[in-house]
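Entry for NAP complex. Fields follow.
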Amino acid sequence: MGEKRPTDKSFLSDLFWTAFNFLRMYIIGLGWLWQQLVDPHRKLKDLPKRTGETAIVTGGARGIGVEVVKQLLQADMRVIIGCRDVAIGNRVIKEILASGIKTGTAECIQLDLESLQSVRMFAKAFLKLGTSLSVLVNNAAYFGPHRMTIDGFEAQLQINYLGHFLLTVLLIPALIRAGKVGKCSRVVNVTSMVSKLGNIEFDDFLMKKYYNRNVAYCNTKLMQVISSNYLNNRFLAEKLPIECYSVHPGVVRTNLFIHFQLYRILMLMLRIVGWPPSKGSDSIVYTAFSEELEGHGGKMVSNCTFVTPNPQADDALIQLRLWEMSCNLTKLEGSKQASTIVPDPFILVDIE
Ligand SMILES: NC(=O)c1ccc[n+]([C@@H]2O[C@H](COP(=O)([O-])OP(=O)(O)OC[C@H]3O[C@@H](n4cnc5c(N)ncnc54)[C@H](OP(=O)(O)O)[C@@H]3O)[C@@H](O)[C@H]2O)c1
């Protein structure tokens, strides 16, 4: 409670569902935290050398994202950080260099996922560099109270899902250029185990009738997994050298939970039993690089092993509905005609 948000439920029913969703998410979250405690932490044994290759990390200037950037630099990549505040991003790059990481190169391009125009400008700026894209890490996220974006969407829906959806589709040409048979380029969607609690409500996709921040987070994290699987299937069917994966980074001490109702208690717990961001980055980096994953696109990874996703993730009808809905909402729908210009139906776009 305590947040202004749409709901068509009565006060008591709203109170019940708020409490139910809160408890469900955090009791189950505790279960995963326990799992994390008893399972040994896994990571790639050796970082490969990816000299001459390029990666993008959204939200790479804070939290788990910075640690991903560090490891990609250690693999000698050119890393583009998509961040809201380029001055902060540049400061972070300086700090990384000062920490002794001298391989690879890093730069920032402004990206605010709350604005689809910003996503388009980011993609345009990247494509203008003329470089291919080996790894796209869709990492940025928002988990907090109800607010609307400039495009009129609820913020979690747009930042966690729609913005990344649009970004991925716009960058397909660069991903195609980097991939080859036996070494596909990779889209790594950083999702969460709570996607297992999600449910796609197509009748209230924009959350105009009912909104609960925990439900919205679970649902948008599930959308990432469904979309990842849909795109991976399409890439496979179109014989395009790109694979998409979903990754749960672990339960990690970051500011993601700053708006959580019991933030201080949670942080105390995470300080004792949660992973630091450096460990949180390990499964993401494993998914970006691991050779043993090749040919397993569409899988969900946690602690460097496959996990079973929410069953909706593999439902072809749900995948298709989500794809169509997302194309419409991000205004990619008319661009199917572009398939007459290039044989690849994914190269849909008129970036403006
Ligand atoms: N921490 C966990 O326990 C946990 C568990 C499961 C999954 N995850 C997932 O791991 C990923 C990283 O989370 P984290 O824990 O590192 O969170 P975090 O510390 O809160 O970092 C979130 C990142 O997202 C960026 N971001 C937020 N809104 C944005 C926007 N409108 N446009 C562009 N970037 C935006 C932030 O950039 P600014 O610096 O500009 O705010 C920041 O870099 C997320 O996808 C999250 O869902 C985390």
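NOTE: Confidence is low (pLDDT under 50) at residues 334-345.
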